[in-house]
Each structure stands twice: as C-alpha cells, then as structure tokens.
Design a protein that fits this description.
This protein is α/β, with parallel strands linked by helices. The chain has helices at about 5-20, 25-40, 45, 55-70, 75-80, 100-110, 130-135, 150-160, 205, 210-215, 225-235, 250-260; strands at about 80-85, 85-90, 120-125, 140-145, 170-175, 185-190, 235-245, 265-270, 275-280. A 7-stranded mixed beta sheet has the order 5-4-3-6-7-9-8, with helices on both faces. Strands 1-2 form a two-stranded antiparallel ribbon. It is elongated, with a radius of gyration of 21 Å. Bound molecules: S-adenosylmethionine (SAM).
C-alpha cells in the first residue's frame, strides 16, 4: 500500500479504504489512526490540509491500517476507549465498552440526582467504565466492583488509579455477588447476555476481540440475569434501585425474570436508537 504523504489526501484515502472494506466507522477510524500518529486533529483537515506526514509515521499508519482492515477495532489497536468523557484502557480480558452502555450511566445519574447513593455495586465490572464514571460524578460515593476475570479486575484497578477514584473503588475477583456482606442503595450491571449459539454470527470485531466471558449468557442469554437477580435479593437495600443493561430483544424475558424473582420493574429505558436497553428495578416498596 502506498499512502499519500499529505494530511487531507491521506485522510480521504484511509476513509475510502475502510468504506470499501465495509467498515461502518470508516470516517472515525481514519481520523483516530491519523491523530494517534501525527497529533494532527480534526481542525487541521481544514486549517492545515497539506501538512506533510513523515515516511516513518506513514509506515506506522500503514501497519495500523492493515490491522484495522483485518478486523481489529481501533480501540483494540490502541487499547483505549472513550466512555462518558473519560479515557478507559482495555486489555484482551475486558469488553470494549459500548456507547449503548452510557445509557445506563445517564439514567442512574438522572434517577438518583437528588440523592446520590453512598455505595454502588457493579456486578461484572470489566474495565470499570460504569462504576468509575458514576464515581467520577458522585464524589462522595464508594464503589464496589467485582468480576470473574482476574485480568478485568487488574484493568479496572489501573483505570480507577489513572482516573483518580482508586481510594473510593473496591475491586475484587468473584462470581456475581457471592460472599459479599454489605447491602447497596444502587446496583448496576451490564452482564454477558448473548445466547451462546448467536456468538458465531456476531461481527468479527466482536467475535474475535471481545472475551467470551463478557459475551456468553448461556443457552438463552439469560443465565447471568438469573444469578444476579438471586444475589440482588440479599444485596439490594429495601429502598434501593438496580439498573441492568439488556440485549435488544430481551425486554419481555428479563421483565418476566424480574417479576418471578419478586422484584418490581419500575421502568424500561431506551438507548439513543430507541431500543429498550436498561431495566430499572426495585423491591417494590418504593
Ligand atoms: C458485558 S461485560 C460488561 C463489562 C463492563 N461492565 C462494561 O459495561 O463494559 C460483562 C462482564 O461480566 C463478567 N462476568 C462474566 N461472568 C461473571 C461472573 N460469573 N461473575 C462476575 N462477573 C462475570 C465478564 O468478565 C465481563 O467483564
């Protein structure tokens, strides 16, 4: 591949290559790769379109373009993802945080705006994107996050340190809420919810780069919800609220499980595309 050595032609070339390869985020990916290696930003495309790119930088850009064309997301190439305005680091043991999950953060912050919780539990914390974002907004809250993956807990610990909330963020390896003695006014979770048989049909970006432990929700995609709802009976304060992220077609199934578990569904919140995405749950007394 021979790449143009001026900014704007290079940008058009990468964007076209990604579009031709069927990459939906072609424009954004082209910009991120160029910015990573040149520090030239969006504005430079207009104010400095002929900026020259050195041969050594072009060689590094070319290497990353090949990786992207072979199906590796840019967030995996650079091990970083912006979520709720914060930069989270990723590793092969963590899910790449999704924009849809910002809906959960937004709704929790909104619903508890008048009375921020003292403690938050995040089951399946991954990179820590949900828990750390909430701690960043609620400066007095203590966060508790657990994950079955040791690598995810190591990554969340490092993110909590880098983003300045480590002194209020308690992280440990475990399965859902087991062995936890506290109760919580707020529980959040984005559990693995893909039915095992559907994993093969996911895009190669997801299938080949997100860890299976973060995706697979058992034969019907609902295993984690069953476990979490069982643990929540013990862990959710009588007056507490829980917010669970669900898959695009799981609304009815999850609502049935919530009610069978003796909880009340307070609301189902859509994501930006209008898809039911977050179920708000209480014990039913509030
Ligand atoms: C869909 S990912 C969500 C990660 C992160 N909260 C986010 O929103 O990006 C689900 C997480 O649950 C974790 N997990 C899977 N099974 C678990 C279990 N039995 N106990 C605790 N965590 C589990 C996975 O390792 C993964 O980090």
């Amino acid at each position: 591949m021979s790449l143009p050595n001026r900014l704007t032609p290079l940008y058009h070339h990468l964007r076209h290559s990604f579009w031709s390869a069927g990459i939906e985020t072609a424009d954004l990916d082209a910009r991120i790769i160029i910015r990573y290696h040149t520090q030239l930003d969006w504005g430079d495309l207009i104010t400095n379109p002929d900026a020259k790119i050195s041969p050594s930088k072009l060689a590094r850009i070319e290497f990353d373009v090949e990786r992207r064309l072979s199906g590796e997301p840019v967030s995996r190439i650079y091990n970083t993802r912006e979520f709720w305005g914060l930069d989270f680091q990723l590793c092969p043991d963590t899910l790449d945080p999704r924009p849809d999950t910002e809906t959960l953060v937004e709704i929790a912050l909104d619903r508890l705006a008048g009375k921020p919780p003292e403690r938050i539990l995040d089951m399946g914390v991954g990179t820590g994107c949900i828990l750390i974002s909430l701690l960043n907004d609620w400066e007095r809250a203590e966060g508790y996050g657990m994950d079955k993956s040791f690598g995810a807990i190591r990554m969340a610990t490092s993110n909590a340190q880098r983003l300045g909330v480590a002194d209020r963020c308690h992280l440990w390896v475990g399965s859902w809420g087991e062995a936890l003695g506290l109760t919580f006014p707020l529980i959040v979770s984005n559990p693995p919810y893909i039915p095992v048989a559907a994993i093969e049909s996911l895009s190669r970006e997801v299938r080949n780069h997100d860890p299976i432990l973060a995706l697979a929700g058992g034969p019907d995609g609902l295993d984690a919800f069953r476990s979490i709802l069982t643990e929540m009976k013990r862990l959710l304060d009588r007056e507490g609220l829980a917010f669970l992220e669900i898959g695009y077609d799981q609304r009815d199934d999850v609502l049935r499980l919530v009610e069978e578990s003796g909880f009340r569904v307070k609301d189902v919140h859509p994501d930006l595309a209008g898809v039911p995405r977050v179920v708000e749950i209480s014990h039913g007394d509030n």
